[in-house]
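fyi for ur records
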Amino acid sequence: MTQKITCPKCNAEHTKKRGFRRTTNREKIQRYECKGCRHAFVQDQGFWKMKNNEHKVTASMDMYYSGMSLRKIQAHLKMFYPKNAHYSTVYRWLVKYSEMMGKATDNLQIENSGAELMSDEMEYSRLGEQNWFVDTLDTKTRFMVSSGFIKSRTNEEMIKILKLAKAKTGNGVKIVTTDAMMGYPTILAKSFGYHKSYYNTNMDRVKSKIIHNVVKADERGFNHKIERLHNTIRDRTKIMRGFHGSINSAKAIMKGMEIYYNYIRKHQGIDNKTPQQEAMPFLDLGINKWLSLIRLSKYKNDNFI
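which gave:
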């Protein structure tokens, strides 16, 4: 995956390499020179002024979302790097880069979405307060289309998550399967659009354009694909100890969990591929997918794509 090198001073794309900048912790960094204004610069790929190597940062993220605790990551880094990173620093990396990647991945269009989405909620206790993690899953590709960590299950919060799912899948979704929560008919109608029959009534019935498939939680096989996803998330988050802080940091950590599930973790149900490889085959992330995603996110966020 290659990205254009542009001059930060005049935005020209005609550049040439001009030696290296040597740093203590990040080794050699390629320098460039603009052929137009002659400005010399280093490309910012998301690690500008970072004191730690990008491979160390991305390795820490991978270890965390694979199941290691922050303190175990600190101990691991101490074995292989001369200068260790404190576990609180690792946590700040997680929040910073999960937020950065989340802004970009929320704007990526799904190319091969199926006709059905599943939506469900997980209850969380964060610092003694009841919160919720809500997500939608494409049943064809196993791609987590949208998600959100919210304080309460209000219609407004749920609609934001479902509207994002609609934006990322276009008009491909025909069915949304949910549990029997009372608010879903209104939420789906406001997210996917109202059925034309709604306007021919006395406004006493809310109906969405898409088919709302309601499955009761006590029925066998209830949303089994999304429940399998939730079991994966529960196995990882049960040792997170209340997400260590504010609601915003919890949102960032769970956004990182979404990215890990979609872009990093291989899924046996789709021939040992990542959901991204099924849903977005145009996106080639290479071997270090965390690093590619950070670089892609920095580029897209800076260029308002």
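The first helix runs from residue 54 to 66. thats all i got for now
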